Amino acid sequence: MYLQPPWALFVTSKDINAKYINDALTRAWKGDNEGAWNLWLATDSYTDIPKLRDDNEIAEGTKPPIPDNFASPFAGKSVEECAKWLQHIPGDSAVNKEYFTVINEFSKEDDTVLVVQVNKNGEGGEEIEVEYFPQPTKNIMMEMWTNGRGKFEEKASNYQRARFDDGKPDRSKGPRYG
Fold first, then answer.
1. Residues annotated as region Disordered (predicted)?
2. Helix/strand/coil percent split, the chain, to 5
3. How far apart are CA 172 and CA 121, in angstroms?
4. Residue 178 has what pLDDT?
5. In angstroms, how far apart are the furthest CA atoms of the chain?
6. Dist CA 97 CA 152 (whole Å)
7. pTM for this one?
8. Fold classified for 7-166
9. Is residue 125 predicted with pLDDT exceeding 70?
10. Residues 66/103, Cβ–Cβ less than 8 Å
11. Where are the domains of the chain?
C-alpha cells in the first residue's frame, strides 16, 4: 500500500533559510525520479494548501523557488504542535493528515528529513501522539510513498538498528523497535 500525497513539509528550525528549503525540495524531487512535487511547504494559513481535485490527479505541492524572505511560522515549534495544526486542515484539502515531513535542527548536519506518523488516541481520536525517524533528503519521497501498512514500524526499526550499530545518536521518537 502507498500513501497519497501531497505531504506537508514543516520547518521547525530557526536556522533553516529559503535557500536550504529550495535545495531540499529539489533534492527530494530528484530522488523521486523528478516525478512530481509532492511536498507542500506548510505556512500558517490554510488558504494556500493544495485542494482535492475532481479529475483523479494528485494535487501538486510546493515547487521551488520559494521567496528568499520566507520564514517558517513553525520555527521553534515541536513536531507535536505541527501535527495538531495539521489535524485542523479544511475538508477540501488534499494534504495527508496521518503522515508528514519535518526539516528540523539536525536536517542540515545529517542531510535528513523526518518522516512523521500521527497516531490518534482516546475517544474520537482527540488525543494525538507522533512517532518519527529521519531519512536522507534524497530518499524522502520514496519513504513517504511506501510507509503504509506497517512499513513505518519496520523502517523506524531499521533506522534505530543502523544508528545503534554505527554508534550514532538515535534521532527518532517512538517505541524502541526490535
1. 158-178
2. 30, 20, 50
3. 20
4. 55
5. 49
6. 15
7. 0.94
8. Rossmann fold (3.40.50)
9. no
10. no
11. 7-166
